[in-house]
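Much of our argument rests on the idea that a fold can be written as discrete symbols. Part of our work consisted of pairing the sequence of a single chain with a tokenised description of its backbone. We regard such an encoding as a compact summary of how the chain folds. The amino acid sequence and the backbone structure tokens for this protein are reproduced below.
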Amino acid sequence: MDPAMTAEPAPGVEARPRRDRRLAIALAWGPVAVAAAVLFASGRAGGVGRAIVAANPAPLLILFCAGLILPVVHATRWRSLLRAVTAEVPLPAAVEMTITASLVNYALPGYTGSPAKGLLVRQLHQVGFGRSTPTLVAEQLLDALMLAAAAVLALALTGRSAIASLAPLGSAREAWVGTAVVVVVLVAAVGSVTMLRKRSRFLGNVVESARLLAADRAQRGTVLALTVVYWLLGLLTVCSATRAVGIPLGATALLWLASAPVLLGMLSPLPGGLGLREAAMAAVGGMLGLPVSGIVAAAVIQRGLLILALPVALAGTRLLRRSRGR
């Protein structure tokens, strides 16, 4: 027998992949575990559970319906962006790819949603990464700018004197929540530092597609309108979730809760920003003087129903395509 076939692997060859996997798992799910531990340590877990069980079903139905519409609006906007770079994709197919990418984003750590969508559109509709990448980047920028504008508006509506009188995170429980936010943000920042090498041909395709995207005026109004609709639906989900647990929000509080936490979630390499967005909503709610247990319950309900709506919307889209023979 060949000695090479019986030789044991060199020390460290198997250990390194294991360490890498453990590090990836720690970066992905560690902050979620920290947030859960902080929730239990703060003594609010019971209140959160009671608020979820006692939630009003009517706002929950509205939230779920909004969750069904969100990926359709998202896909319609992406289809308009693809048209700007001379790529035509049927709307049902765009919806399916958008939902599938969202599910991948929840299943895997890192910013996997957009790359997954780029991979799907390349394999299924022969749209290269060079053309699709600017559209995917444009989606992220549009959403981030909309959320930033909402946060600035919330800041303006709050006013300097009102900001100074915001309920501080002074009690032990709110301090725990604030600590969780800081820890999760720091881990997210460390995990999001990545370096990718690009080929010159790929970069050339990206630059050319970005130029076409910026020069296209036919789709500009549609894309901006759909971005506003997408943001309004996000507001509706936050409003419905908080009303379900008996916390009606004013316009300023709604803007704060629907903008700042989502912006932080976009910076996180955690699957779907899990843990970070909920912790941020709790911290913002505490500073606004809202019941933290109720806000955490609303955040969990919002996340759960939006995730549940994804496979339902995907199944409905596929049934629609089959009924039309597409």
